[in-house]
Write a structure and sequence with these properties.
This protein has a single domain, classed as RutC-like (60s Ribosomal Protein L30, Chain: A, 2-Layer Sandwich), CATH 3.30.1330.40. Helix 2 links the parallel strand 4 and strand 5. The chain contains two helices and six strands; from the N terminus they run βββαβαββ. The protein is of the alpha+beta class. The radius of gyration is 14 Å and the shape is globular. A six-stranded mixed beta sheet has the order 1-2-3-6-4-5, with helices on one face.
Length: 128
């Protein structure tokens, strides 16, 4: 792909990338957001507890979507990574407050470990 056809999303209103990746990339009419973990962008501190973590992750995603001129209604695909699948119902209850019908496609999987040992990470793809 010609790199002139892709644009990166970068804002200090959301947690900054902590490695060789972008907060988000726009390409071919889609926005691809990197996985968000529950870091409060104002303090740089982690939020603890699955409900609070899920809210913070989705608030971080909201900021990045807005930065790209999108909203949760633009999201077509989500990937949810959980440290413990036992937290699925709590995460899902909060998730349902952010996403409305027609819902995006989604997978939710339990993983062995997440960055900074958080309980949840979510990435999204949105249509522009």
């Amino acid at each position: 792909m010609d790199t002139t056809l892709k644009k990166t999303i970068n804002t200090n209103k959301a947690p900054l990338a902590i490695g060789p990746y972008s907060q988000g990339v726009i390409a071919n009419g889609f926005l691809f957001l990197s996985g968000q973990i529950p870091i409060n962008p104002k303090t740089g501190e982690l939020v603890v507890g699955i409900e609070k973590e899920t809210i913070q992750v989705l608030e971080n995603i909201s900021i990045l979507l807005q930065e790209a001129g999108c909203s949760f209604n633009s999201v077509v695909k989500t990937s949810v990574f959980l440290k413990d699948m036992g937290d699925f119902s709590k995460m899902n209850e909060i998730y349902s407050q952010y996403f409305k019908e027609p819902y995006p496609a989604r997978e939710a999987v339990q993983v062995a470990k997440l960055p900074k040992d958080v309980s949840v990470e979510i990435s999204v793809i949105a249509a522009l």
